[in-house]
Structure formats: C-alpha cells, structure tokens
Write a structure and sequence with these properties.
Length: 137
C-alpha cells in the first residue's frame, strides 16, 4: 500500500503529515522532501476503523542511507505505538551517559527523511505527524 506525505509549512514550526495504509506485511514507507531543521516531536494517530496492530512502530531514517536512525540518540523512541490512542513523543537528545540533556536539544536533519511504519498488520491505517523547526541561515 502507500503513505501519502503532505506538509503544513510557513510558521515557526512546520509539520510533515504521513497518511498511511500498510501492506499485507504490515509496512508503509515514504520519503519526505528535503528538510533542514530540528525534529521536535511526533504524534501518531491510529485509524478507528482499520485499526493497526497494537505496538506497531514508526521509525525515522535518513532516506539517503536507510540504516541511519535519526532518533538513535534521543530519550524517547517511536516503537510500540498504541492501536487505539493518539500518542505524542518529544525528541530530546541524550548525553554520553544516556541521560536526557538538561537543556532540550533536538536532532538536526538536512535531507530527506524516510517515514517507516512496521508491524501494523494487513492493510491497516493511521496518520503520523512530525513537527520540525526550520534552521535559519
């Protein structure tokens, strides 16, 4: 199946909106356009009719190299999403000891982002919203 990406842009915080329907294997993947900014938070919204499998995952990767998890150094991850509840996760980077930084620091991206839904079940639906702040020159 597919994921359709739309954008809400122009303000101090922008949003990437991925509306997805999973394949028979439970996956949905799409790349964003080039993003240059700080990733702030994600909201996952499961469909109320074609309900995804409980504990499905949303992952964010560098689209140029799908092995680079953009949230690897963050305090919170996007695994184990609820099948019934809208959930919100803020991305706060950790220090070298694994503790959240005292001053919130968000991961910086400059390129395409791969939005990757997995383990959602056969032809299930949902929406993921990624909030980001553009970097200013």
């Amino acid at each position: 199946m597919a994921m359709v990406i739309t954008y809400d842009e122009g303000g101090p915080v922008n949003t990437i909106i991925g509306t997805w329907t999973s394949t028979s294997g439970g996956n949905a993947v799409a790349d964003t356009k080039k993003i240059s900014g700080e990733l702030i938070k994600a909201i996952t919204i499961p469909d109320s009719v074609d309900v995804p499998t409980d504990s499905y995952d949303l992952r964010l990767f560098n689209a140029d190299d799908g092995d680079i998890n953009l949230l690897a150094d963050c305090d919170q991850k996007l695994g184990d999403r609820s099948d019934t509840n809208t959930e919100e996760v803020y991305f706060i980077e950790k220090d070298h000891d694994g503790a959240p930084l005292a001053k919130p620091t968000h991961p910086v991206v400059n390129g395409l982002i791969e939005l990757n839904i997995r383990l959602a079940g056969d032809t299930k639906k949902g929406v993921c919203e990624i909030y980001w702040k553009p970097l200013r020159a």
